[in-house]
Amino acid sequence: MVAPSILAADFAHLADDTRSALDAGGSLVHLDVMDGHFVPNLSMGPALCASLRRALPEVCFDVHLMVTDPGQYVEAFAKAGADHITFHAEVLEQIEAIALANRVRDLGCTAGIAINPETGLDRVTPLLDSFEMLLIMSVHPGFGGQAFIESVLEKAEQVRQCGPDGLILEIDGGIGPRTGPTSIRAGCDILVAGSAIFSKAEAERAPVIRSMYG
Ligand code: DX5
Ligand code: ZN
Asked: Which of 7, 90, 137 to mutate to test the pocket of ligand 1 (most atoms within 8 A of CB)?
C-alpha cells in the first residue's frame, strides 16, 4: 500500500489535497508529527488530525510521532482520530517502548516502532513482538523531499528473514517510482510518499502512485 504523507500537502486545502491523493490510489493517510526537538522542524498537532478526521471519516490515519516524549501525545492523537500510532525507538528504553505500545492498544490504536537510518535493527529486535508495525526510515526525519538511503533496505530484508511473521513493514522517506519497487522487493508492505505525490498535479498522481508498485 501507498500512504501519502500530508507533510508535503497544501495545508491551506488539506482535506481536498489529501482526498485527491487517496482518490489517486493512496490507501491510508500518513501524518508526520514533529516537535522541533526530536527533529528540527514543527509540523502538525492533534487539532489538525481532528479536523482532517471530520473531513475524512472513513480513512485510516497513520500517525508518525517524531517527538521526544511520545507518551505525552498518544491520548490526544487517539482522541483526535488516529488509527495507528508510531513512535521512535531512539527516545525510549525498550521497557518503556513496550509499555507505551500497550497504552496505544488500550486506546484502540495499533502500535508501530520507528528506527532512523543510523539506528541498527538490534535496537528493536527484542521489541518487535510488542508491535503491529516497524517503520524503517529511509531519510533522516524532519523534512520531506530528501534522497532515499538505500542501505536501510537491508533492515527490511533481515526482518523478513528473521521475523516476527505478520509484522507490517513500512518505509518512509524518498519513496517514488524508482525506490518504491525496490522497497517492495525488500519486503516492505507500506510505502510512505510525500513529495513524489503532492509535488504532482492532480492528474499525474494516479500514474505516479501506480509506478511505486513497480
Ligand atoms: C520525514 C517524514 C516522511 C516524509 C516523507 O521526517 O517522516 O514521512 O514526510 O516525505 P518524502 O516522501 O518527500 O520523502
Ligand atoms: Zn513519516
From this structure: 7
Q: Which of 201, 203, 199, 189 is nearest to 3 (CA)?
A: 189
pLDDT in tens, the chain (214 residues): 999 999 999 999 999 999 999 999 999 999 999 999 999 999 999 999 999 999 999 999 999 999 999 999 999 999 999 999 999 999 999 999 999 999 999 999 999 999 999 999 999 999 999 999 999 999 999 999 999 999 999 999 999 999 899 999 999 999 999 999 999 999 999 999 999 999 999 999 999 999 999 8
How far away, in angstroms, is 138 Cα from ligand 1 center?
Answer: 9
How many domains, in total, are found in the chain?
Answer: 1
Q: Which string of b and e fits 75-102 if b means at least 16 CB within 10 Å?
A: eebbebbbbbbbbbbebbeeeebbebbe
Containing structural domain, residue 164: 2-211
Check which CATH number belongs to the domain holding 59 and give it: 3.20.20.70
Q: Given the residues 17, 35, 62, 172, select the one marked as catalytic.
A: 172
Please tell me the pTM assigned to this model. 0.98
Q: Indicate if ligand 1 lies below 6 Å from the C-beta of 138.
A: no
